[in-house]
Amino acid sequence: MRKSRFTDEQIAAIVHEAESGARATEVCRWHSVSKETLRSWRAKYRGLDLHEARRLKQLEEESRRLKQLVAELALENSLLKDVVGRKG
């Protein structure tokens, strides 16, 4: 997945700006993002302050690493079962 050019703090500020009454089209133009991007950011970051946004990003990264670890261990387990199955 491509890394965003905006930090979590910037995204939360843009969403807050859009929610505080500025028109969505103007906010998108000022920050050079599409309406769809703003819509997805709103769905994810609505109501979050900066600290919560950082914590969300950390938890997503931790989840990604744990999923990768589980996949690697499942592959190793499968390979070991194949090796044991052939010997017997």
UniProtKB/TrEMBL annotation:
- Quote the protein name from its UniProt record: Transposase
Q: Which residues form a coiled coil?
A: none
Listed under GO biological process in this entry are: DNA transposition
What GO MF annotations does this protein's record show?
DNA binding; transposase activity
* Source organism of this protein record: Roseisolibacter agri
Q: Which InterPro entries match?
A: Homeodomain-like_sf, Transposase_8, Transposase_8_domain, WH-like_DNA-bd_sf
Q: Superkingdom, according to UniProt? A: Bacteria
| Record field: transmembrane | none
